[in-house]
Design brief:
The complex is a heterodimer of chains A (about 110) and B (about 250). Chain A is of the alpha/beta class and about 110 residues long. Chain A is about 40% helix and about 20% strand. In chain A, helix 3 (about 55-60) runs parallel beside helix 4 (about 75-85). Chain A is globular. The two termini of chain A are about 10 Å apart. With about 250 residues, chain B is of the alpha/beta class. Chain B is built from eight helices and eleven strands. In chain B, the strands form three sheets. In chain B, strands 7-4-3-2-1-10-11 form a seven-stranded mixed beta sheet, sandwiched between helices. In chain B, helix 1 (about 25-35) packs across helix 2 (about 50-55). The chains are: A alpha/beta (about 110), B alpha/beta (about 250). The interface of A and B includes residues 31, 32, 51 and 53 of A.
Chain lengths: ~110, ~250
């Protein structure tokens, strides 16, 4: 499913819509970037509380479909700027990680 | 110049996770036992016991003021200072910012300020084992503003290590890093090539008396002082840094 459609259904807000046509294949939930580097797969929609600038580099390296900050958390402008430069999709979910992941799972694997 | 032995990561009874036996007198006793020339007491988001450790040690060993700051990203850094005032004012600033979570000593352990006579001065009520609500960059700024030295703590470790938590060394100046007591230096550099060319420290991260000096850093200095340490970190004036062999748990 395309990221734009996922965002619409889950009511995710785009902070950076670098490539909304990206295919979301699966999801990954983690706040430890070393864990994401080791285990996230290309095409995963990555849900996190971590808002450090490094999320952009890690997301790009792992070729995730996008990074979703959960529970309404918003990164600082520097992170948004960097994501724009690197072409990494950034989104915000008002739901917490559990509910965001639950809804995403239901949508991707009905 | 000669080699001095330094352990810059020692917890005291002020850390909830630190043993109650870690009083200033006991820490100095253990540091002398371990042959340490330079130490720093770095409690979680606090540094107050350092001044009593200093008083007990009387320069033997030399004692730097310090704390282990936990940032909003849940990354831990060692902040070291020459001046008591610099460290204590930062503790005060952080304490005001910490969330209103009361420490439950039964659950987390006591947070005690203990003086040079082993008497309890006071107890810190807010839980120190939580992040200060400042980003890594903001915390580093506040340390630098007080002419302090920043060394990211046990960078390889999850939780708390900058590489473990943030995956990569973030932009910024990181001339020195600390690796875990048990981490092989070569292995760390292989796994994170970005560590190459930086000064690598090792600290004991002691929470119990017998852990003091279980791992350390040899420093080639003129005197075991803050200024000489700073030069060593900057690779200036022939000062050198060499971590001890990794600590191996007795089987």
């Amino acid at each position: 499913m395309k990221l734009g459609a996922v965002a619409h259904t889950l009511r995710l807000e785009f902070l950076v819509d670098a490539a909304p046509d990206t295919e979301v294949r699966d999801g990954y939930v983690s706040d430890l970037l070393s864990d994401v580097l080791a285990h996230a797969e290309p095409g995963d929609l990555w849900l996190t509380h971590q808002r450090h600038l490094n999320v952009v580099a890690v997301g790009k390296l792992r070729e995730v479909a996008g990074i979703v900050f959960v529970r309404g958390l918003r990164p600082n402008p520097e992170v948004i700027q960097k994501a724009r430069e690197e072409g990494v999709n950034l989104l915000v979910s008002q739901d917490d990680a559990f509910h965001t992941a639950g809804k995403l799972h239901r949508l991707l694997f009905p | 110049m000669r080699w001095f032995r330094a352990d810059l990561h020692i917890h005291s009874a002020l850390s909830p996770c630190g043993s109650l036996e870690m009083s200033p007198r006991r820490i100095v006793e253990e540091a002398r036992r371990a042959g340490l020339d330079l130490i720093a007491v770095c409690d979680h988001n606090a540094g107050e016991n350092g001044k009593y450790v200093r008083k007990v040690a009387q320069g033997f060993p030399e004692v730097l003021m310090g704390m282990e700051i936990q940032t909003a990203e849940e990354v831990e850094i060692l902040a070291l200072f020459a001046e008591e005032k610099a460290c204590l004012s930062l503790q005060e600033e952080f304490y005001a910012l910490l969330p209103q979570i009361r420490n439950d000593p039964e659950l987390f352990g006591d947070q005690l300020v203990v003086d040079a006579e082993d008497e309890v001065v006071r107890e810190l009520e807010k839980l120190l084992l939580v992040p200060v609500p400042l980003s890594l960059a903001e915390a580093v700024e506040r340390v630098w503003a007080r002419e302090g030295l920043v060394i990211p703590a046990h960078v390889d470790r999850v939780p708390g290590g900058v590489l473990g938590v943030l995956g990569l060394l973030p932009p910024g100046e990181w001339p020195a890093v600390e690796i875990s007591p048990w981490m092989e230096e070569g292995e760390a550099v292989r796994r994170w090539p970005e560590l190459g060319g930086r000064r690598v420290f090792r600290g004991s991260d002691a929470h119990y008396p017998w852990e003091v000096g279980r791992a350390w850093t040899d420093l080639y200095l003129r005197t075991p002082s803050f200024t000489d340490l700073l030069w060593a970190v900057q690779g200036k004036a022939g000062r050198l840094v060499r971590p001890s062999a990794p600590w191996k748990e007795a089987s």
